[in-house]
Design a protein that fits this description.
Quinone Oxidoreductase, Chain A, domain 1, 6-stranded parallel β-sheet, alpha/beta, binds nicotinamide-adenine-dinucleotide, 7-stranded mixed β-sheet, binds zinc ion, EC 1.1.1.284, 2 domains
């Protein structure tokens, strides 16, 4: 191919500074170095974690950056030492590495890995190194992926090879939101058949958690959101009951406790708000209730009275639904192709990369579930 071994000049949406619109720029993407893969991004979702970095986290060392971490694409070229991937492979970049060698990768208990930006840079949300430059400046790769770009370069530890028949403008959502919510219910909460669940926040992550609760056999799934426009969609994924905290003057944990004879068996926080995290925990039944934090924030402490935990509740957290990406993502792509997992139903809008700021605005206003940005032809 004409581009192999050369710098590629291409279009990307650059976040030059926090709290400002992204700017479509021509960037330079260096060739892949040893153990790296250069990927032509075909499609990418916009996830709330992109908005978190831009508008909430706003860490000064995390800019300028190319955001986006929920993408799918095609391998363009590979660097020395890469044998797992070849040009033309369909892939999903992974924001949680899987080196397969560290103590975490070797343990079945976790999907954490000692490699990659997530090992020690949760504030900055980007690795120190980058293969991007623009106007003579280094541009960081958000969550090690940067899918709001026509091309990106990632370490082979951060790539999952998927079924070549998979439609990339759909399965890109398995790069974050759908796996995150589904896995939080199935892998982290370990929702049980016949149980009662509550899901707080009905974006793509929360709706995927609803789908996971249903797949695990929950009999009652209470969908909680302050935006009642989300309830119709939650029904599609299996929610049985709907609660808008704004309709109640009592604390929401009390409302849920009264609905469920003392609290739910499992709750999942998919908002990223420490107050909601507390409510989700306190909505669980004493004795065995399990609450999982999925929403992303690293700005404030979350707290509760110790008696909540002494009384037998468990508070957990989950990143990327607990899936080890190289194994979990291809499996979920197969489950989607076999119609066992829904993906299309999350997509409310389709746009081009140029319209990324419109997509961000839609999410800010709660007017979408997922917008898929079509970046390059398949
Ligand atoms: N842990 C992970 O690996 C991981 C991965 C992806 C996303 N996330 C995080 O998950 C969260 C959800 O992401 P998303 O893309 O679905 O976002 P989203 O913006 O599409 O959805 C959030 C939903 O929460 C609702 N909400 C806001 N305040 C609420 C409240 N007080 N009570 C109930 N509902 C409330 C909103 O109305 C909205 O429907 C974000 O914090 C995101 O950063 C975490
Ligand atoms: Zn995400
Ligand atoms: Zn590892």
């Amino acid at each position: 191919m004409a581009t192999v071994g050369k710098v590629i000049k291409c279009k990307a949406a650059v976040a030059w500074e926090p709290n400002k619109p992204l700017v479509i720029e021509e960037i330079e993407v260096a060739p892949p170095q040893a153990n790296e893969v250069r990927i032509k991004i075909v499609a990418t979702g916009v996830c709330h974690t992109d908005l978190y970095h831009l508008f909430e986290g706003m860490h000064k060392d995390g800019f300028p950056a190319v955001l986006g971490h929920e993408g799918a694409g095609i391998v363009e070229s590979v660097g020395p030492g890469v044998i797992e991937f070849q040009p033309g492979d369909k892939v999903i970049p992974l924001f949680i590495y899987q080196c397969r060698e560290c103590r975490f990768c070797k343990s079945p208990k976790t999907n954490q890995c000692e490699k990659g930006w997530a090992a020690d840079r949760y504030d900055v949300m980007a690795s120190a190194e980058s293969r991007f430059t623009c106007k003579g400046k280094k541009i960081l790769q958000f969550m090690g992926t940067s899918t709001f770009s026509e091309y990106t370069v990632v370490n082979q530890m951060a790539v999952a090879k998927i079924d070549p028949t998979a439609p990339l403008d759909k399965v890109c959502l398995l790069g974050c939101g759908v796996c995150t919510g589904y896995g939080a219910a199935v892998n982290t909460a370990k929702v049980e058949p016949g149980s009662t669940c509550a899901v707080f926040g009905l974006g793509a992550v929360g709706l995927a958690a609803v789908m996971g609760c249903k797949a695990a056999g929950a009999k009652k799934i209470i969908a909680v959101d302050i935006n009642p426009e989300k309830f119709e969609k939650a029904k599609v994924f299996g929610a049985t009951d709907f609660v808008n905290p704004k309709d109640h003057s009592k604390p929401i944990s009390q409302v849920l406790s009264e609905m469920t004879n003392g609290g739910v068996d499992f709750s999942l926080e998919c908002v990223g708000n420490v107050g909601v995290m507390r409510s989700a925990l306190e909505s669980c039944v004493q004795g065995w209730g399990v609450s999982v934090i999925v929403g992303w924030t690293n700005l404030e402490d979350c707290s509760t009275r110790p008696i909540q935990l002494i009384a037998g509740r468990t508070w957990k957290g989950s990143v990327f639904g607990g899936f080890k990406g190289k194994y979990g993502v291809p499996q979920l792509v197969e489950a989607y192709l076999d119609k066992k997992v829904k993906v299309d139903e999350f997509i409310t809008h389709n746009m081009t990369l140029d319209q990324v700021n419109d997509a961000i605005e839609l999410m800010k206003q709660g007017k979408c579930i997922r917008t898929v940005l079509h970046v390059s032809p398949q």
